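quick one, 216 residues, struct below
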Amino acid sequence: MQILVIDDHQLFADGLRLVLEDIAEVTSCTVALSGEAALAILDEETKYDLIVVDLHLPGIDGTSLLRSLEARQSSIPLVVISATDSVEEIKGALDLGARGFIPKSFDRAEIQAALKTIVAGERFLPADIAEKIKRIEQSKISFPDMPERVTSLGITKRQYDVLTYVAKGYSNKQIANSLYLTEHTIKVHIKALFKSLQASNRTQLVQIAESKNLLR
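---
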């Protein structure tokens, strides 16, 4: 098995290569320090059996790289190894075809065990990440696609999710925990909602949303 590692941190990439080459099924491991370099390698060679990519890359980031590979109809299995703690970002990578997510905080044995699972053709996610993604998916059932009366006001899906929680009386911290976002991000969304609905506070925001029949 030949693996392509894409990570802009040379020290980590070299260390990961050693970890990978210690797995019996792995015959060789190539390192690319950017998304652009990886695409150039893949343009010349299609011999790789697995791609390991970080999401936070300069230039073409990991998510954009996944989209590019999807557009190319690449059949090479891919796994994300990243320090990101954004569940939405991780879920986005999975939706784009990644077979799993491995935190960079994992030790050597944990990384090897996770990769062996993926090499065997199975999906790998840490238990806590899998549970959070499950909750997000359940949340989408509770908050289905937005009606036209909402989108016509320029309110995004995420802003609408925040608005719904505000109407339920949730604090910024509670909303952030429910949506797996930062409190700063929630504040940004609420500020945008104030502007879209011409409200000056949370109470007025909910009143205007109800008057416009935006809430179910």
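The chain has eleven helices and five strands.
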